[in-house]
Each structure stands twice: as C-alpha cells, then as structure tokens.
Design goal:
Helix content: 25-40%
Number of strands: 17
CATH class of the largest domain: Alpha Beta
Radius of gyration: 21 Å
CATH topology of the largest domain: TIM Barrel
Number of helices: 15
C-alpha cells in the first residue's frame, strides 16, 4: 500500500541537517517513508491524504507510566510522591481483570490522542496492559514486577508467554522485567532473577526511590545508594532503565554513563507532589547519557500527554538552572529519538528509509520560521491532533477510526 501525505505545512523531522521542513509531501510505501519532497505527483495505486494546515512530528514515547490509574485523576493531588505512588499501586493491585483492561484502555486512548505511539507501562496487571495496547495498535514495553511474586522466577515464565502472545497478535511489543527499589532492598531470589533477565537480553526497569527519605533508608539497609548498589550487583548495563533518578550522586552519574544505562525523567510528578527531587538533566545530556521522558500516568501526574510533559520539562529545568537550556526542541528529541533508542527501535525520525510512525497536528496559525514552530509547541493548549500514522494504519483522532479502511 502507498500513502501520500500531501501539503504538510511543517514537518519536524528530528533529523539533521534538515530538522524542520516547510510545505512538503511524504510518500509512504509498505509502512516505510520512501520520499520527502515538495510537489510529489503520483496518481496510480496511491491513497492521497490532504494534510493542509497540519504539522508532522515523529510518534512520541511515554517512557514511564502506570496506566491503570485513570480513575484516580485529581484524587492524589494532596499527597506527597511516596504516598501517591503507594496509593496508586495498591489501587492497581486490587483491580479485577476487566477493570484493569478498562483503565489501561482509557489511559492509552488519552495518550494516543496526544501523539504517543509507544508506552513503557509498569503495573501489577501487565497482561491487561498488553491487551489494551495491542487493541489500539500502540507499541508497549511492559512485563512482570519481581516484588509482585512469591516466586520471582515466575517472571521469566510470564515474559516468555507475553512474547508468544505478541508474535501471535503481531503486536508492537518489547519485553521488560520491572523492579521497585524502596527501603527494603532486594531478596536474593529477586536479584538472581533480575541478573538472569539481563543475561537473556531482556530490558530491566528499576523504579528508583522517590524521596530523599527513601534513598537514605535504602542506604542504611544496604550500605549503598540505589544506583551504586545496582552497579555493585552487576545490574547496570545498556539494557537497564532507571526511572525517577531524582537523587543521584556524581559517582552514580558516571556509572550510568560507563555502563550505558538509560534514564527516564518525570518532572511533572516531581513538581506536582513537592518531592524536591530533580533529575540532573543538563549534566546527563552533556555527557550523552540516553534520557527519555515519562508522564508517570494519570494517577500520579493527572496526565498522559508527552507534549504537555515536554513543555513542563522545558520550563522546570530553565527555572531550576537559570539557563536557556534545554530548548523545547531538545526536550522533544528526548520524547521521540531518545525514547525510541530506549526501546531498541529504529524510530523517532521522519526521514526517507525510516518506518512511518508519525503524528499530524492542526496548526491554527501557520508558522513562518523555525522559531514559530517551537513557539507553537511551547503551549500544549494550541495543539490538536488530527491523525496518527503507524505503518499503514492511519487513525483519525479523536474517533480512532481507521481512515484508510473507512475509504
């Protein structure tokens, strides 16, 4: 199948040297971008989509969320971050299968309507999260959390089952084992399973302590700071994902860099729940440490929009550092390029030869310069999504109708 996206007002390709293109067409064939140019003219065996007044961006990646908290939006605002997380995890743990599926579906529709095409989801009900994502054709990275099993070795069995289901359903899926790091540390069996998962090539996500109190409680228990402990146990690698690193020592930053681990930042939840934590984003970017951006989900941050999170991130760190960095373009790159790198996927770019995974936004006022494009994205209220293109599937937002099937 060939799809021709005609008359795109502006495209943020995220690919140097032509990161921003004005007035262009994009030709997609069999789910791959084969040509980007002005005035592409093909009339045979092609589906034309008028994109006048639309801006194109790569699909965005939510690097961390707890999807099954949609019904908690606004209910945890007066709790600190530790209390909010505990309440949301207990809520998810007590959901029935049908309730968990409905919660994930609601959150994923919210995310998709805001341009998110891949999600890393940490929840006790990972099977239901997987099913909800596959039903909407959202890419998902999810899997068991070791602390949820009396026998942690069952995590590896569940991962194999998920991989089988993913092949059967032709799902866009990436396996992961998650671990919550709080005051109690790890059991020997949990450490054994996490090491085995890494040895088998699985990604391993560590949900780091959320507050300064938790960090020092962990250190008193184990004798090490959290990331220092992971390094000592051989659990830092290029397959390691570290979420909520709001309290990192300089030594830990160097360890993350040396082992090629990845960081996921969630500035909205830090700010909303007054945690006083802050990921050292400037230093991480300067050291070329891979960084992704996560919403933390509807229960913790009342948000599933990565564009909103990018705007918050941009403002938060400019205020924190008193510097005109990062730029909004820097933060958007974190949201797509870096996010896709974390997933091990060749995505995050609009370019010839790249997979077609992009979003198309209504542009209320046509920007005439690259600065105009950046200004547009600084205010998420200006953004209204029209289409999401994933391979050969073109979804119309917010109805989620398959436009090409409809025609």
């Amino acid at each position: 199948m060939r799809i021709l996206l005609k008359n795109i007002t502006v495209a943020l390709t995220m690919k140097s040297p032509r990161e921003i293109l004005f007035d262009c067409d994009i030709l997609v064939e069999n789910g791959v971008i084969v040509k980007i140019d002005r005035g592409i003219s093909i009339n045979k065996d092609v589906i034309h989509v008028d994109c006048s007044g639309l801006a194109a961006l790569p699909g965005l990646v939510d690097g961390h969320c707890h999807s099954q908290t949609a019904n908690l939006v606004g209910l945890l605002e007066e709790k600190d971050l530790e209390e909010a997380f505990t309440a949301s995890w207990d809520y998810m743990r007590n959901l029935s299968r049908s309730e968990a599926l409905a919660e994930s579906s609601t959150s994923f529709k919210w995310a998709l309507s805001c341009g998110t095409t891949w999600i890393i989801d940490v929840t006790p009900n990972f099977m239901e999260a997987f099913d909800a994502a596959v039903d909407l054709n959202i890419g998902i990275m999810t899997g068991p959390t070791v602390q949820e099993f009396d026998d942690p070795h069952k995590c590896l069995v569940h991962l194999k089952f998920l991989l089988t289901r993913a092949r059967e359903r032709k799902a866009r899926y990436h396996p992961i084992i998650a671990s919550l790091i709080f005051e109690d540390g790890f059991s020997g069996e949990q450490l054994e399973v996490l090491k085995e998962a890494l040895s088998k090539g699985y990604s391993t996500l560590f949900h780091l302590p959320l507050t300064r109190k938790q960090v020092f409680s962990f250190k008193r228990k184990t004798g090490h700071f959290p990331i220092e402990f992971l390094c000592k146990e051989g659990l830092l690698s290029s397959k390691t994902i570290l979420v909520h690193p709001g309290w990192m020592t300089s030594w830990e930053i160097e360890a993350v860099r040396n082992y090629g681990a990845t960081i996921i930042d969630t500035p909205s939840s830090y700010m909303r729940h007054a945690s006083a934590a802050s990921t050292p984003l400037q230093r991480l970017l300067k050291l070329d440490i891979p960084v992704g951006l996560g919403t933390d989900g509807p229960g913790i941050s009342s948000n599933m929009s990565i564009i909103f999170e990018a705007s918050t991130c941009y403002l938060h760190y400019r205020h924190l550092y008193w510097m005109l960095r990062p730029s909004i373009l820097d933060v958007l790159k974190i949201s797509c390029l870096s996010g896709c790198g974390i997933l091990g996927r060749r995505k995050g770019i609009i370019g010839e030869g790249e997979p077609a995974e992009l979003i198309l936004l209504n542009v209320r006022q046509k920007p005439s310069t690259s600065k105009g494009v950046i200004a547009l994205l600084m205010n998420p209220s200006n953004i209204e999504l029209k289409y999401v293109l994933i391979g050969e599937n073109l979804l119309e937002v917010p109805s989620f109708k398959h436009v090409l099937e409809k025609e």
